[in-house]
């Protein structure tokens, strides 16, 4: 081999899921020679098998940083509800008379069918009334779904004590389970979209389902042992402990999710911190998710209805013909904000070409106007942001003038806010605001 040929040889380091795996030497004939393999975990180890079966193929590179801890809490809550749920169904079967020689199998079958029908009706009605708002506040809804699942289990557990109300109680429990199914099916999609960082949404959803199935399978064998050996007096204490464990684990699972998308609550918290620091900084993704309430909604100093129909706007603030004409003919203006001072409610008309950036921008304008309404005037013109707030406060009776100030220099105040948020890692390509369905063309 000549010296020139030796110079053409070079090494390539191969990585597997972000870890060094193999080293290859490429020679002048474009052949790869395997030099060494990094000694790491054996591919036949239990850890590797568990990872292969239940974690996404490119874990941890293809998922969000909160994926691992979320799945840990998800395993705990899935195991708890699988075992407590078996206790609940056992109690329901006893209430139906299963195992009694004098039981009426026809009556039990009718009760079971009617409770299923009640669940189906409940699922349809809930989806009709609330489905559009599930993704906007998915943490709270997902936690509420788990609470409803526990309510269903408790309802089934008490059925043996109220045999005359068996149909009513079991129907309520099945409605709760059906609503839980709608909530979880919808909100889990939002969570998986957040966790999928490499266009691997289907892989993450499938592996999460496999992991929960595996936990339920283990719980199945535990259920057989417990139901066969436990005295009846011990079932309730264990059931209550499992229910408490389920609620704790599901709360922790929702708390550890670090959304970088804005919903109304997170956006309000981010804006509040931004205003307090005179536009210099805002909350990090970890901080805002830690402050976001799970069970209760954030308290807002105003109300807002975005994407409303003209017929829903109060007559006293209905836009003039000139306002509507300008809004309709100006392609740059993709939203029109109206304010009802008596109820402190903002109404927003949207154009058909309104995009995500418009939605975030109009919410920022509403937040800053509301902040100006509720903050005291400080004649401090050394701070650029405070100077802007002071100017808005002087024009508060005229909302159009306030918006004109905010639109100055191509929405400079919003662009500054956007840059501060982008530096923290917030996503401005998608948002989870609860938006109405009406648009103006």
UniProtKB/TrEMBL annotation:
Keywords: Membrane, Transmembrane, Transmembrane helix. The keyword Amino-acid biosynthesis does not apply. PANTHER family: RUS FAMILY MEMBER 1, RUS1 FAMILY PROTEIN C16ORF58. Residues 282-436 form the Root UVB sensitive protein C-terminal domain. The keyword Nucleotide-binding does not apply. It comes from the Eukaryota. This is Uncharacterized protein. InterPro entries: RUS_fam, UVB_sens_C, UVB_sens_RUS_dom. Belongs to the RUS1 family. It is found in: Membrane. Residues 41-277 form the Protein root UVB sensitive/RUS domain. GO terms for cellular component: membrane.
């Amino acid at each position: 081999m000549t010296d020139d040929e030796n110079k053409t040889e070079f090494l390539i380091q191969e990585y597997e899921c972000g870890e060094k795996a193999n080293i290859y030497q490429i020679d002048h004939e474009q052949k790869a020679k395997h030099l060494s393999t990094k000694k790491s975990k054996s591919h036949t180890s239990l850890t590797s098998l568990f990872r292969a079966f239940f974690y996404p193929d490119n874990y941890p590179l293809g998922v969000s940083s909160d994926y691992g801890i979320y799945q840990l809490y998800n395993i705990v809550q899935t195991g708890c509800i699988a075992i407590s749920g078996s206790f609940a169904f056992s109690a329901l079967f006893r209430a139906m008379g299963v195992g009694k020689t004098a039981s009426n199998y026809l009556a039990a079958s009718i009760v079971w069918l009617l409770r299923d029908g009640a669940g189906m009706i409940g699922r349809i009605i809930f989806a009709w009334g609330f489905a559009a708002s599930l993704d906007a506040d998915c943490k709270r809804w997902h936690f509420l779904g788990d609470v409803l699942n526990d309510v269903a289990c408790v309802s089934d557990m008490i059925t043996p004590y109220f045999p005359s109300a068996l149909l009513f109680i079991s129907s309520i429990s099945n409605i709760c389970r059906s609503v839980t199914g709608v909530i979880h099916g919808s909100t889990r999609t939002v969570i998986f979209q957040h966790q999928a960082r490499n266009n691997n949404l289907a892989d993450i959803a499938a592996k999460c389902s496999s992991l929960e199935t595996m936990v339920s399978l283990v719980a199945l064998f535990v259920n057989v042992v417990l139901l066969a050996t436990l005295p009846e007096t011990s079932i309730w204490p264990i059931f209550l402990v499992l229910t408490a464990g389920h609620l704790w684990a599901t709360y922790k699972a929702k708390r550890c999710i670090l959304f970088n998308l804005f919903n109304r609550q997170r956006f309000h918290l981010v804006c509040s911190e931004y205003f307090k620091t005179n536009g210099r900084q805002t909350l990090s993704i970890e901080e805002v998710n830690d402050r976001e309430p799970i069970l209760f909604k954030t308290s807002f100093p105003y109300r807002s209805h975005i994407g409303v129909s003209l017929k829903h706007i109060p007559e006293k603030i209905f836009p003039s013909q000139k306002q509507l004409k300008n809004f309709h003919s100006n392609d740059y203006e993709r939203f029109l904000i109206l304010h009802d001072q008596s109820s402190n409610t903002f109404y927003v008309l949207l154009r058909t070409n309104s995009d995500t950036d418009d939605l975030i921008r109009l919410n920022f304008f509403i937040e800053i106007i509301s902040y100006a309404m509720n903050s005291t005037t400080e004649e401090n013109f050394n701070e650029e942001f405070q100077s802007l707030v002071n100017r808005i406060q002087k024009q508060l009776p005229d909302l159009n003038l306030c918006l004109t100030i905010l639109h100055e220099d191509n929405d400079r105040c919003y662009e500054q806010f956007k840059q501060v948020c982008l530096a923290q890692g917030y996503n401005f390509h998608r948002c989870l605001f609860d938006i109405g369905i009406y648009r103006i063309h």
